[in-house]
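Reading a protein record of the kind used here takes little practice once its layout is understood. The reader may check this reading against the record printed directly beneath this paragraph.
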Amino acid sequence: MILPIVAYGDPVLRKVAKDLDKEYPKLEELIENMWETMYNANGVGLAAPQIGLPIRMFLVDTSPFSDDEDLSKEVQEALNGFKKVFINAKIEREEGDEWAFNEGCLSIPDVREDVKRKETITISYLDANFKMKRETYDGLLARVIQHEYDHIEGILFTDKLSSLKKRLLKARLKNIAQGKVPVDYRMRFPEMKKAR
């Protein structure tokens, strides 16, 4: 089932999410619904807070990036077929130089900005079968994971922009919160909800 994606301005996007356990109700169904929701919106990642749930879970499928001809063959291969669920994730280490990349977010439609992030991360998490994993990623894989991880920490990519950029985006972000933005996927807008 395709779920509505929560728009910028909803308080759930600012909460530090809580851990979950195997007994979480209908977890398998929730994961399937999140995949369907993400693919419907042409995303490469989706975090539970983005569908209104303040729990520490996100999923990533970087396959769409593997078609990017600007990337090396090696990078394209790493991105193709990378599809994972991250539960109760904890980034243990961020290393390397910071590099800029143009990011967007399903909760902040029609806004894209260059964001600087560290090149390499080490992350521990539970997979969809609740098996403990500890892995190191770099480049675009690390970036997508960092972006989604920020969601479970109550952080949005716009928080990482300069104060000037934030001021320039203020009106656009307000319009998103009020539902005054064209989107071609299901969304839930916080200020429209209040108006009812």
Notes: Residues 5-173 form a domain with the Peptide Deformylase fold (CATH 3.90.45.10). The longest strand covers residues 83-105. The CA atoms of residues 120 and 138 lie 4 Å apart. Strands lie at 5-6, 45-47, 57-61, 83-105, 108-126, 132-138, 187-188.
